[in-house]
């Protein structure tokens, strides 16, 4: 699939502009555990996957720049000195936002054309947006010798999301997409923005994604609201971020916060602990313990942090009824997208069948099943 995507964008580029483009592949990500902890300076446990964005990019001498989203059959032209955000929810903001944030760092970008396409289902909680942002910044850095490090590039991608897309996201998605490592997941400390790679070999178990096909939209204020609730409780506690707070600290201010916000902060502190415990479980090869932590994460996301939805909860309930599934939870920002399941290899087919039928019956629509491979981060394709 990856080779196909790359060929597509390459051929289209040569057809349209008659020159050989630079080719970039930028992956989406999964997250084993540690959800909504990144913007609380906490721990997350993501991995880049073999699905992503393929981009073909090259300098333009037409006096204009352009971006073409092949999958949407949508192309825009723009002037680099007149950038501003477009309509909320449009794909253009991911591209324009990155260019604008590079300019904000006083780096000079010349005109360029980019053509891209991808195979990450949008709104699936697999970070198609971070993959796109990273492909743009990576390509421009290369083309115009901007001298940006990978660390600079992910901060630019994140800022694009904040200022052009309007989602005050953490750093997990951009980090995982850029720094991913084949067959590894990364225990990322979102305060230091440094990670420790863990080789993932679950022996007779594996990860399986089930997409509700309910598209989440993070620009919904729901995401930003939660972030600011967390920040205000951290402030009340006199700590830099909730990552620094203990359960005892939180008890101390319980009377001063709403019960809803208390639950949200409680969730963040617990989830941060779960992410660290999960890395220990993986080190020990204790998949039963890992599975329990994953189920615990979903419980918290659904009941305390309130970012799940009926369809996600249903899929997790289906998993719980099957004792060959050790753990399942919603993944990513929430309100739709995928669940991630830790399942016995021999059980995947039967479970996929059962879940698909049950889901169809319950919601009158299909879910989709994905098997993924953990892969390298954003890179040039030769
Ligand atoms: C989205 C954001 C990330 C992270 C997750 C939730 O994917 O982009 O920064 O906050 O939601 O863990």
In short:
With 382 residues, this protein is an alpha+beta fold. The protein has two domains: 204 residues, Ribosomal Protein S5, domain 2 (2-Layer Sandwich); 167 residues, 2-Layer Sandwich (Alpha-Beta Plaits). It has a six-stranded mixed beta sheet. A four-stranded antiparallel beta sheet has the order 10-11-9-12. A three-stranded antiparallel beta sheet has the order 2-7-8, covered by helices on one side.
Query: Would you give the CATH topology of the largest domain?
Result: Ribosomal Protein S5, domain 2
The CATH class designation of the largest domain is Alpha Beta
Structural class: alpha+beta
Please describe the biggest sheet, giving its number of strands, its sense, and whether it closes into a barrel: 6 strands, mixed
Tell the overall outline: globular
Beta strand %: 15-25%
Instruction: Give the topology string: H per helix, E per strand.
Output: HEEEEEHEHHHEEEHHHHHEEHEE
Q: How many strands in all? A: 13
**Helix percent band:** 40-55%
Number of domains: 2
What is the arithmetic mean of pLDDT?
A: 97
Radius of gyration: 21 Å
Task: Tell me the strand order in the biggest sheet.
Answer: 5-4-6-3-1-13
Uncertain residue segments = none
CATH architecture of the largest domain, please?
Answer: 2-Layer Sandwich
Taking the alpha carbons of the first and last residues, their distance comes to 16 Å
Number of helices: 11
User: Which ligands accompany this protein?
Assistant: alpha-D-galactopyranose
């Amino acid at each position: 699939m990856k080779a196909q995507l790359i060929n597509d964008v390459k051929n289209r580029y040569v057809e349209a502009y008659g020159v050989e483009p630079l080719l970039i592949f930028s992956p989406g990500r999964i997250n084993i555990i540690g959800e909504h902890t990144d913007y609380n300076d906490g721990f997350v446990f993501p991995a880049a996957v073999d699905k992503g964005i393929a981009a073909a990019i090259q300098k333009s001498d037409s006096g204009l720049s352009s971006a073409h989203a092949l999958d949407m059959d949508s192309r825009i032209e723009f002037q680099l000195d007149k950038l501003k955000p477009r309509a909320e929810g449009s794909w253009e903001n991911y591209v324009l936002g990155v260019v604008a944030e590079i300019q904000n760092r006083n780096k000079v970008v010349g005109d360029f054309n980019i053509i891209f396409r991808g195979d990450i289902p949008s709104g699936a909680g697999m970070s198609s947006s971070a993959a796109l942002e990273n492909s743009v910044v990576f390509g421009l850095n290369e083309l115009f010798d901007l001298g940006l490090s990978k660390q600079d590039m992910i901060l630019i991608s994140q800022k694009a999301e904040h200022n052009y897309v309007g989602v005050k996201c953490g750093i997990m998605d951009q980090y995982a997409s850029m720094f991913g490592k084949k067959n590894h997941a990364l225990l990322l400390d979102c305060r230091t923005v440094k990670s420790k790679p863990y080789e993932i070999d679950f022996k007779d178990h594996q990860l399986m994604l089930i997409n509700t096909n309910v598209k989440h939209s993070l620009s919904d204020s729901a995401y930003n609201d939660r972030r600011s609730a967390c920040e205000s409780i951290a402030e009340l506690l006199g700590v830099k971020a909730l990552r620094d707070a203990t359960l005892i600290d939180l008890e101390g201010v319980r009377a001063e916060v709403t019960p809803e916000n208390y639950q949200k902060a409680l969730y963040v502190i617990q989830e941060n602990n779960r992410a660290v415990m999960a890395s220990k479980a993986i080190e020990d090869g204790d998949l039963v313990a890992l599975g329990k932590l994953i189920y615990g994460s979903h419980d918290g996301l659904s009941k305390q942090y309130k970012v799940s939805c009926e369809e996600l909860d249903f899929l997790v309930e289906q998993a719980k009824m099957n004792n060959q599934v050790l753990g399942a939870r919603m993944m990513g920002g929430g309100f739709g997208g995928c669940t991630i399941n830790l399942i016995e290899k021999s059980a995947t087919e039967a479970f996929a069948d059962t879940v698909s039928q049950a889901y169809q019956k319950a919601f009158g629509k299909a879910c989709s099943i994905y098997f993924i491979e953990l892969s390298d981060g954003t890179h040039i394709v030769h």
